[in-house]
Amino acid sequence: MNNSGLLREHRRERFLFLGLAGPAIVLVGVSAMAPVLWILSQSFLTLAGKATLGNYEKVLSSGLTWSSLGVTMTLSLSTLIICIVLGVPLSLALASANRRVANRALILIMLPLWTSILVRTYGWLVLLRREGLINTTLASLGVIDQPLPLVYNFTGTLIGMVHYMLPLFVLPVYAAMRDIDGNVVRAAASLGAGFWRCVATVILPLSSSGMASGSMIVFIYTLGFFITPAVLGGGKVNPIAIRIERTLSTFQDWGSASALGVLLLLLVLIAGCLFVAVRRLAGDRMHHA
């Protein structure tokens, strides 16, 4: 078969696969877009059903909105930084370990994801409260005289969010590090590169795509966190998701709540585009290198 015949056969297979996947694509697309379009339409309507830009004016002129956006960004960035600090060494250790040991360790790391987020959040509430296990243990050892404020604040919220997101960060980073050719690492070592230099100049650059994917998952996912800040924040940590819920439950203002939802969606889209651009830039640099 000549090249033109192979090309036609390839196109025929692509159209066949697209036709088979078509119903699922339409179903998922409608299910995903219909709520977004409904929220978008509600953000331009008054309670009487009239078109208006007042909802956006009300939301953008409110100091509470900008405060919630600031808290949201701070929580997401802090969670991402801690996940990077903890997740990169953990992924490196897993990638360097024996396959059997790494698989068993991965099961332990992924175990929290098999438990409801609500159960895990209340578990942290029990551990971090003033009479919780951590404070009582530290007090019994004489480390502290007064209970530490570990819950109903930013610290407790951050602990709960890192606990939830760390496994999701480790998975793509570990997969990227596991795929690195061991000969490349051994070649760097044979040329005189020490452990830290080998990590900085070989392992981290070659696993940059996994780190970018993990960072995107962590940052974008945490932008919409609700349960963890609501429980561990104790009403003192109010990201935009909690602001949306209170706008609905307290004022029944669907227009303003929808406008806040659109702002959160735009924030997610901007963050996603930035991470995709960074990942492509890192990939281009690795390709040229």
From TrEMBL:
Topology with respect to the bilayer: Multi-pass membrane protein
Location relative to the cell: Cell membrane
Gene Ontology annotations of biological process type: transmembrane transport
Domain ABC transmembrane type-1, first and last residues per copy: 69-275
One of the record's GO cellular component terms: plasma membrane
Keyword vocabulary terms for this entry: Cell membrane, Membrane, Transmembrane, Transmembrane helix, Transport
Transmembrane spans: 15-40, 69-93, 105-125, 150-175, 187-206, 212-233, 254-278
Major localization listed first in the record, in broad terms: membrane
InterPro entries: MetI-like, MetI-like_sf
A UniProt-annotated Pfam family: BPD_transp_1
UniProt xrefs under Gene3D superfamilies: MetI-like
Family, per entry: Belongs to the binding-protein-dependent transport system permease family. CysTW subfamily.
Protein name: ABC transporter permease
